[in-house]
């Protein structure tokens, strides 16, 4: 089993998503921006204007209430926040500003700036 894995490990992974960039109408752009503001606001609990890993962890930790259908272990919380920072923190300073967040969303939507 492990030998089989070693034999294929030199094949480069190619998982680049095929997204055709498109332009948004001003109405669409405004709509996406409004939604982004709302979601960002949820993450930015202390309203500092940026989101850090701790805030992401705290947000999802909030699901861990008694009787909740969705709960997260500390390990999962770490993974969630790490993933969030990886996607959103473009300049790698440990904070995701609204601009960074918005750009990540546009990228996700396949929008060309
Ligand atoms: Ca940043």
Your description of this structure?
53% of the residues lie in helices and 4% in strands. It has 113 residues and is mostly helical. The protein has one domain: EF-hand (Recoverin, domain 1). It has a two-stranded antiparallel ribbon with strand order 1-2. The longest helix is centred in the first third of the chain and has 18 residues. It is globular. The chain starts with a helix and ends in a 5-residue tail after the last helix. The site of calcium ion (CA) has 7 residues, from strand 2.
Number of separate strands: 2
Terminal Cα separation, in Å?
46 Å
Mind telling me the C-alpha Rg? 18 Å
Strand content: under 5%
- Number of individual domains: 1
> What would you give as the CATH superfamily?
EF-hand
Q: Would you kindly provide a brief summary of this structure?
A:
This protein has helices at 2-8, 26-43, 53-61, 74-88, 98-108; strands at residues 50-51, 96-97. It is mainly alpha-helical and 113 residues long.
Keywords:
113 residues; mainly alpha; Recoverin, domain 1; two-stranded antiparallel ribbon; 5 helices; 53% helix; binds calcium ion
Walk me through the topology.
Elements: H1 2-8, H2 26-43, E1 50-51, H3 53-61, H4 74-88, E2 96-97, H5 98-108
Antiparallel strand pairs: 1-2
Bound molecules: calcium ion (CA).
């Amino acid at each position: 089993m492990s030998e089989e894995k070693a034999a294929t490990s030199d094949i480069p992974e190619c998982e680049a998503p095929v997204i055709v960039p498109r332009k948004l109408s001003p109405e669409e752009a405004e709509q996406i921006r409004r939604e982004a503001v709302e979601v960002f606001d949820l993450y930015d609990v202390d309203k500092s204007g940026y989101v850090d890993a701790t805030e992401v962890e705290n947000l999802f930790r909030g699901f861990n209430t008694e009787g909740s259908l969705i709960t997260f272990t500390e390990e999962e919380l770490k993974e969630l926040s790490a993933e969030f920072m990886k996607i959103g923190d473009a300049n790698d300073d440990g904070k995701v500003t609204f601009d960074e967040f918005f750009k990540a969303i546009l990228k996700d939507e396949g929008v060309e700036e």
